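Record 1 of the preview.
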Amino acid sequence: MQGGDVETFTFASASGCDSLVTVTVNELQSFQTALTLETCSGESIIFNNTELQGGDVETFTFASASGCDSLVTVTVNELQSFQTALTLETCAGESIIFNDTELQGGDVETFTFASASGCDSLVTVTVNEYMLTVNAGNDVQLPLTGTISLVPTLSDNQNELDITWYGVGILAENAHTATQIISEAGTYVLEIQNSNLGCTVIDTVVVAPRDAVTVLLIDDNVLQAPEGYSYQWYFNGELIENADAATYTAQQSGNYWVVITDAAGFSNSSEPMQVNVVGLQNDNEIILQIAPNPSGGVFYINSSQPLLAWELYNVLGGLVLEKQYFNNVAFDANVDICHLPDGMYFLQLYHTSVVSTQHLIVKTGK
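->
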């Protein structure tokens, strides 16, 4: 008989009469249960003395109280562990703290944390070293007049940098501009800071003072200043009226100098030059002999007054040769000009009381 069957059976009793037995078969139900378990990635779990891995699905049979089988289907879910990459930055030569660990630039380290599910979470930390460099520029000299520009070379995007200049004449409102226009000599300091990390570097540049204006005495009493400016000549500390050309003819013996001014209004001056005007101070008259002139190799100087020094300039006012005698004053000198190119030169002679200038023609074939 099967569960659910109902059947009547006839039996003979002791009295000879029929005895009827009706049999009903009830079907006992077996239990089927689904169970979900969890384990961390790479780990296992024990169920009913069986080791199960993440992703396993297995059915187990148990005997119920009624003696029938009970089925339990076990599904093991794998809990994912988190793996995260984190990049940090630190200034060159400095360290950074992560999870109570000191890390240097260039370090790569993995840290393990417990997630909410109890599984491991991995964080790989890479520390990049931030290199901040700056070059404020080469040391320079102020021009004869005017200004110069200091243009630094920076290693990073200027939008991320705080720039500060320190030095003579730099106004606070202009100090944070990368390029600076400089009109005064001095030492200038450039400080660069990364606004995100706080890294700071410093560089300096030296701006040397202007050279004095070179004035040539092209004749006994004619003074020549560099071309291309406006001029004002002075005599013994006094302004000379209407003396505003590149050349000036001295009218009397004494100290002369010139102030030159460029188109932008920047000025510079020459050193005072003592000029002896022949005929006004006969006691200072100098008899000079320079030969040969033109010269192709060596020329000779003969002076009636002691010679302290001499300087040879080209027509552009550039100094090409010089000689000083200090305490050993000379009346005669030999000058070798074999290496100089052909052209006109100005020979400036320094005596004990006056300065004189002579033209010299060089013909060396160069």
